[in-house]
Amino acid sequence: MKLSILIPVYNEQETVGVVLDSVQKLNVPKITKEIIVIDDGSSDKTPQILKKRKNIILITHKKNQGKGAAIQSGLRKAAGEIILIQDADLEYNPKDIPKLIQPIIDKEYQVVYGTRLRTKPVLFGENRTPLLLHFFGNKFLSIVTSVLYGKKITDMETGYKAFSEKALKGITLHSRSFDLEPEITAKILKKGIKILEIDIATNPRNYDEGKKIRPVKDGTKALWTLIKYRFSE
Fold first, then answer.
1. What is the CATH number of domain 2-231?
2. Residues whose CB falls within 8 Å of the CB of residue 12, separated by 6 or more in sequence, listed in order
């Protein structure tokens, strides 16, 4: 069985090499893997770093088009029976990949999400939850998803998503940016496919470290996307 790991990249010169090292070292019994990196118009040293990498499939966008557009490019190239999205920062640990894909390997589930939001936020102290606006925004969007689609989900916006090839068959994606997350979730749920959520550890970064999603602008767009695809294609 082949695993296609899609890694969208935009100006991640500080982290992309570390992520690729971890993904390339990953070993899952009886699984071969292809690593598809989509450079979405990076203007820093990311392109030079990627060109030196061996054993990856590199797709290059001349201009920045957004995460959704990058994932669409990767999906057109993917040849695996399992497809997993891996961000190029260090928020998600590739060591979690085996537990995310195992239920798909075992044919127990077709879709698995890594959830960050089943714990309550820590509001004070040294270990307080960073970016609380993001936390509560994600919680709200996940509740909206659960209500609109009748299936409980705790972390719709997670960047760690794994799919069987069969689950994605017949789904056409239109989102070009971060609204990819609600669109693909909406269309999976409308197909009647159950999403298994598995707890993962994350290392959230702030805007000074390169975080790109904007809670108000992107959150509003995500809300509209959830409503739109509930009642239309």
1. 3.90.550.10
2. 19, 42, 44, 46, 88, 89, 210
Backbone phi and psi for residue 145, each to the nearest 5 degrees, phi listed first? -60, -45
In angstroms, rounded to a whole number, what is the distance separating the alpha carbons of residues 142 and 233?
20
* Gap between the Cα atoms of 77 and 47, Å rounded: 19
pLDDT, tens digit, for every residue of 134-144?
788 888 999 99
Domain parsing of the chain, residue ranges: 2-231
Residue with tokens 């959150």: 219
The one-letter amino acid at 188: I
pTM of the model: 0.90
Which pair of structure tokens corresponds to residue 179?
């609204």
Which residues, including other chains, have CB under 8 Å from residue 181's CB and lie 6 or more apart? Answer: 156, 157, 158, 159, 161, 222
Specify whether the CB–CB gap between 86 and 160 falls below 8 A: yes
Whether residue 40 contacts residue 70, with contact meaning beta carbons closer than 8 Å, is answered with yes
